[in-house]
Amino acid sequence: MSADAEQVPKGIEVIKWTNGDKSKSIRYRVRVKRLKKGIDYNETFESLPNAIEARKAVLNGDTPEKRPVAKNLTQHELGQLMLSKYGDDQGVKLLTDTPFSFYAKKYFEGKIEGKDLDKPTGKFNEDSTKYRLKSILDTPIEYKRNADSKVDGIWETLLVSTKTTLGNIPAKFLDHVAINSYIQTALKKKAKSTVKRELGVISAIVNYTMHVAPDFYKKHWLINPVKLADKSRLTGHNAPLDRRISPEQEEAVINALANYSNQEVNQIFILSLLTGARRSEILFLEWSQIKDSHIYLGVTKSGKPRKLLLRDEAKEALALIQKRENSPRLFTYSLSGFAGIWQKLKKEYGFTEVKFHDCRREFIARFLELMGNKSVIAIANMTGQTDLRHLEKTIEALEQPDLSTEKGLQKHVGHSSLNMLRHYASGLLNQKK
């Protein structure tokens, strides 16, 4: 019977070719791919019956003699195999149930460690990130080991939660439900704005995994779990503060710091109030940066240089600072050193309600009072703010409302909707009629 007359079943490919001596040959290819079952089989046979038998054996899960079925072990099966051979070894656990902390470490090494050390703030930022990462990874969470489960519906809600920390959770189980648990726990001790920043770090770690473990990323995190998490509890995290440093608070801080042995702390505080410069910008300020009525800042948080306008009060404060021999800097403190002493003095002298960053907000508020035209651009140039939208909100929060306008009255009474204000106003007007 010719090959053409033979009935070739589905799933078997007929391969024909002409040899050099003009004779013809024929073989039968069996190709079976069942990736979910870990089967990838590809073989050719001289006779059709052998090919049919081999294909049947593969589909039944049996191994034909011609070639063993190449079965890819799942991560769970690989883990069981390694555990049976090597026992309860930490290295085996790392390979088979890789914790999220492993990818966090890769992120730190690849994106943070050793970067920007040429900048004055480089080491401080690296240490701060390391401390923040530890705090994030040590946060207790709960998760459900249902990644490979076939349960759904009400049964899924009955799965028992596993308690661990964010760092110890097997990365494959880090989903939006685990992130929700993180948010709930973190908010018990941290501000909304802090938790929001930490979620940004977690999201960055997940995204970085795409570069170090692309197959794992595609399988488990094609959509970032932070993006899918319920962040409704963090509403208002970025609300601008209207808190100001009162004249009484300012006087109390200056008088208290005047009693401290190192007058640099007082000088740094005053200079921040009078210039709106960031703490790091003042701490590493050099005499060569001060020119007439400006301070030129070459290294800033935003990465863009800018000029600080020096008013008379700021010039007077600078004149009181003594130059040190063979030192280009105005002050000797490091970022971590100043942060530590500031917190210590706040507790010792009782001005715990004053945050150093309040100096920038207070500078903006006083600048607004001096300006007839409240230019957002001018204030942004002075303070180095790059987020103009947030700066506008800060300005609105600091401004005293004009009660003769609808917008001012809306702000004063706290209505988020102008329509709601008009609703109340119309009701009052109707009462007067």
Explained architecture:
The protein is an alpha+beta fold and 433 residues long. The chain folds into three domains: 12-71, no CATH class; 90-234, Orthogonal Bundle (DNA polymerase, domain 1); 247-398, Intergrase catalytic core (hpI Integrase, Chain A, Orthogonal Bundle), CATH 1.10.443. It has 20 helices and nine strands. It has helices spanning 48-59, 75-86, 90-96, 100-112, 122-137, 154-157, 176-186, 192-212, 214-220, 225-228, 247-258, 264-275, 279-283, 312-319, 335-349, 358-370, 376-383, 388-398, 406-413, 418-432; strands spanning 12-18, 24-34, 39-45, 70-71, 140-143, 162-165, 290-291, 294-297, 306-309. The strands form three sheets. It has a four-stranded antiparallel beta sheet with strand order 1-2-3-4, covered by helices on one side. β8 and β9 (306-309) form a beta hairpin. The radius of gyration is 34 Å and the shape is elongated. Mean pLDDT is 77; it is low at 1-5, 65-73, 408-416 and 420-433.
